[in-house]
């Protein structure tokens, strides 16, 4: 794995390169032992959800 922080960044910002690859793909899900915080969820909802959906 790459660590919880990078997995969360990959998912929340759709940055596949956080998984340690130069491949550009969409991030559909990421596993983590660290749950998303209320702030992370609110930021995602405000900034990304309108264009990407839930």
Automatic annotation (TrEMBL):
Name of this chain's protein: DING protein
Lineage: Eukaryota, Viridiplantae, Streptophyta, Embryophyta, Tracheophyta
């Amino acid at each position: 794995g790459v660590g919880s922080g990078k997995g969360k960044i990959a998912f929340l910002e759709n940055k596949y390169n956080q998984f340690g690859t130069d491949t550009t793909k969409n991030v559909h899900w990421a596993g983590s032992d660290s749950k998303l915080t209320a702030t992370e969820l609110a930021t995602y909802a405000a900034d990304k959800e309108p264009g990407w959906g839930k």
